[in-house]
Write a structure and sequence with these properties.
globular, four-stranded parallel β-sheet, alpha/beta
């Protein structure tokens, strides 16, 4: 299956998407700005990637490694 990078994965709709993607066999890397968001990502079964869409950083390289990006 595919690797998916998700921003907004700790939000209402994002959580549903992450759960479904994982249930369908995809590996999910989830952008997380805070420790709380990182915990949500882990609870959902995703791999948290520390970062913020508004701040360039190492998270960008992780996103380019994925086959799909969902925002």
């Amino acid at each position: 299956m595919a690797t998916v990078f998700v921003s907004g994965g700790s939000g209402f709709i994002g959580k549903v998407f992450v759960r479904e993607a994982i249930a369908h066999g995809h590996e999910v890397l989830q952008l997380a700005r805070s420790p709380k968001s990182q915990a949500i990502a882990r609870d959902l079964g995703a791999t948290p990637v520390e970062g913020d869409l508004l701040v360039p950083g190492p998270w960008q390289a992780r996103a380019t490694e994925c086959e799909h990006v969902v925002h």
